[in-house]
Design goal:
heterotrimer; A alpha/beta; B mainly alpha; C mainly alpha; A: alpha/beta; ten-stranded mixed beta sheet; 11 helices; 10 strands; C: MetI-like fold; 2 domains; 13 helices; 0% strand; MetI-like (chain B)
Chain lengths: 282, 330, 348
Amino acid sequence: MTTSHVTPSSLSSVASARTVSQPGTALLGNGLETRGVHAWFGKKHVLSDVTLDFAAGTVTALIGPSGCGKSTFLRTLNRMHEFIPTAAMAGEVLLDGKDIYAPGIDVTKIRLRVGMVFQKPNPFPSMTIGQNVLSGLKLAQIKNSNTDDLLESCLTRAGLWNEVKDRLGEHGGALSGGQQQRLCIARSLAVEPQVLLMDEPCSALDPGSTFRIEETIADLAKTMTIVIVTHNMQQAARVSDYTAFFLSDGGPGEMIEAAPTSSIFSSPQNKRTEDYVTGRFG
Amino acid sequence: MAIELKERPTPPAPRQITTKPRLSDQVFRTVVTIGGMASLVILGLIAIFLSIKGMHILVDEKFNFITESRWEVITDETGEVIEANFGIGAMLIGTMLSATIAILVGVPISVLSALYLTFYANGKLKKVLISVIDLMAAFPSLLFGFWGFFIFMSSAEYWAKLINKYLGFIPLFDVPTPIFERSPFIAGLVLAIMIIPIVTSISREIFDQTPLDRVQAAYALGATKLSMIKAVVIPYGRGGIIGGAMLGLGRAMGETVAVYTVLNVVYQVNWQVLFGAGGNVASLILLKFGEAGPYEVDALMAAGLILFLLTLIVNATADFLINRFGGKGR
Amino acid sequence: MNKVIPAPQKPWQPTFIDKLEDVAILVGSLGVAGAIVKFTGFNGKLGYFFAFFFTLLVANFVFHFIKRGMQAAKDSILQVLTAMAIFVTLIPIVSIVATVVSKGYKGIHWGLLTKDMALASVNDPIASGGLLHALVGTIIMVGGALIISFPIGVLTALYLTEINGKLARPIKFLVQAMSGVPSIVAGLFILSSLIYPVTKALSGLMGSLALTILMIPTIARTSEEMLRLIPNELREAGVALGGTQWRTVAGVVLPAAKSGLVTAIILGVARIIGETAPLLLVSGGGDSLNTNPTSGAMGSLPYYIWKAFLTGGTPEAFARAWGGMLVLLSFIFILFGLARYLSGRKVG
């Protein structure tokens, strides 16, 4: 982990340089809330009692050392958690006030509203760049008559349009890693989600590509709610409005502290948060 | 860079690392390599010996051996061969006919079964089903043959009559006389049942290798199982499935005993799949072998050679496809 | 501070109501199919099956369409199709096992293991003959094939895993190609290379040799898989301790793969134990006990079954044949169970 040379003051200055989005201002729904979420893999309790609100139109960073349950928590937010056969959970995840785990809820509709970008860029190799962006429409059988405009707007918002506009017919695998990741972001945008979950989207990328993605995140935050898991505290400071710190002391992961990003890095309330953000461990 | 080198030194040539193996290792490697060559040697010997016995028939008959459909040996009182005509055209057609039916029926069922095993079944049920299907793949063809003859035939005959009744206007489903027993159709179905476990196993292994990140990406975009399978699993597994189907085709083409029992092996060209006559190359060899004189045996060797080469080609293609597409991106 | 930890739940799993709905659709479809068979032109098992199949498809489609819309409806179609496919796959295996057991038990008696068919014809009463000769013949021929193909198969596997030279890819390919050689061709090969030019007589040894050709690919492939499961550290540790490659393979790799190699033997035996076509050509069909593989025709289980079916016509002959089949199938079950038991555990 690259936290050893970070001082709290430098991080908080980065964080306060961002203007905090005003929650609930845009027509973005009422955001995402969790109520007492627990998660298990088999008998192992990996996440305990997380209650956290993600206001619409904000960027929230989930930070913490490896194995603290932050990725698991992220995956409970759009029901990707259940793909692990032994997985179990408890608690509620409310999207616009409705529990996404309630019986009778169509899980595919939830995942349309809560999109996800993965750690490793994973474009569909059998599809061209253009087809990749529009794949969500095909997968969810959404009719859209104006796919050309949608293609351009998604790629533009993902910051990729200028680089690929002449090669939309090429296969996604021909792009660089950073471009592939932005392609994956464009792909999630095409189905117009309310919330975008990002699971360490830059961990496999070089600094230049990371920078481009962070710019993209800042742009996207105007129109949607973003939750990003990151190992990189400078990144959390640069891109997020709010930060939640997760930690596991050998038992299940817990959320230690959640606050506006600037105050997490300048005046953490909890000793363990302070130790982590000042690089004393992790 | 602050420091610049004025000239780059030419990099030294990489050192050649040589290890002189000890004598015991030399012996070991030699023995293992010789043993490893066994498959090459055996396949070569098969081709050579079948050619030695059968080649003169092929030279005599030339292409007629493949295209013509005659199998006649005329001998005088002393047993000398006066005239002989050999052509396995009818049997090649029969081989293709029954194997094609097997593929058309067997492969879709296998692929769907494999999808069920990979994406629907879980836990204990999945384990049990996989064991049962693997066990079925180990059943001898003798068992399929006699089960097909005694148990399956009556049902299949009834289905054949139905097809003939409603689709008889299509020449393929017409029959010259209403004999529906032991037809290529029934042989094809029994072969389909034989290859289903094999093709299912291969398809399942290929589906299992579908990269999880792509599957998750599809689900995260709101895909249902159907649209995920269409967008991710099928493009990924297509080549491998075709390879698996080819492997099934090879098995169906070379099958002897099961075809011999459920097909009325008659030496005639029969395109009408529901009519009870036909055969394949392997069952012809078994049928004619018992009563064949030395000259005819050579012709059977030639037929065996053709069958050997045919299955070799099919299996080679299958292997190529499975290796090429089995573990790779598209 | 004591926190109350809620019980883990799996809210994504189908609820009791969901399962009830599925069962209701299934039962309903069975009923509708029955009605269709009763009141329309459909009849027989096949008619019932198709009626049921289409009713189930339609019922699922409509149900999920009303509940969740088009997407879910289409999705349910695939689920019905795949479930039906696995059902269709299972019908033959159930039918085969049921047939062999229900018809075969009549042909089983104690005399099977003490008598041969030298003095009995297939149409004689069951108790007057046995399959001693066939059992002995199969054991001798399979054993002989095993003695030859095990070393060759394992050497091939060792070449692929331990030496892994330039020829590894072509050899892998050839082994695969060899596994596709039709069994009758293996018989013809032994005829053309040994029986006609050399021995001029059928014998058990020739049967063994023909079976060897079919057995080598199975043993080679299974052994290769099993040897690949041996972690490389083990080999490196062997070499790092100053062992030669030969000592490492003989002292570390092969012992570690022992149960894997036994699995390879078992699967190889299962592959050839029921093989019929080549034996009909090269080992002849002995009806009396012959323990000498080098001279004289030698009986075998598959031949015993083959002859009883093809030359007999009485209930006794069929009982005999199915009885032989039951013995053969039992062998396969036992071999398969053993292989599962051995390879299910960790190799080593």
